Amino acid sequence: MFNISKSAKRIDNTKTALVSTNSTDFWIGANDLITAGKWAWTDGSNYLYTNWAPGQPQVGKDCASSRLSDGRWMANDCLLSKAYTYSLPPQPAFTCPPPPTCAPIITHAPVVCTPRQCTPHCDSEWTYFSQTDSCFKVFFGQKWDDAEAFCVEQGGHLASVHSEQENTFVANLARTNQKQSNPNELTWIGLKASGNEWKWTDNTKTDYINWAPKQPDNPGKENCVELAQDTSDHGWYENWNNENCNTVMRAFVCKKKSIS
What we know:
Blueprint (H helix, E strand, L loop, with lengths): L2 E2 L20 E7 L8 E2 L21 E5 L5 E4 L6 E2 L1 E2 L6 E2 L23 E2 L6 E3 L4 E9 L1 H10 L3 E2 L5 H11 L12 E8 L2 E4 L23 E4 L12 E4 L5 E9 L3
Parallel strand pairs: 2-6, 13-17
Antiparallel strand pairs: 1-7, 2-3, 2-4, 4-5, 8-9, 10-11, 11-17, 12-17, 13-14, 13-15, 15-16
């Protein structure tokens, strides 16, 4: 997973971070796509530092860029093509115990302390989310039932979501390999209608929902749930929509418990 670069205290505005380009500015991860006028970072971290140029941000322009000349920020149309930088969060892929110690004893035989091995949280190419101690991976091109069956084969289920932070995490992961902005190319998650209720396929509690405006609709016809991961879809970004389960979706996200 990655996020367009940000910092709670400062943005390192450096030309050397970019490949040679004729651009005068580059994208950073601040936007007000969810609530107009309320700027936030794409990774959900606290929005504590700003560096807007005079007269910025302009109303109606929802994504932030940073000028190469002075590092000041400007609001721009999110569909513009610009250079960008991104930051990779620390990946706690392994949990290592402290160095082993041996209790002092008197003996003529050698005393050997055998350290425990470091244990990975997730299988290779899966991404760890510490809040639910779970591993996630994005796959592509399946109907909902086929996607769920595939996730079960991987040892998990289509992703359940239990907080705003986890929802943002799944949305960011779902943008993997998305070559162009297309609001219609959404992502299956593991919520499905069961009578008058919506239930997760992993049988966890439905304790968080994030429906798009006027959703869900078409009861009995659209029983599976998709996540809008595309930042260009201003009204539905990170929101959920119910859809016909036989729709072949661009992506789907599997979730399983960590292996550590």
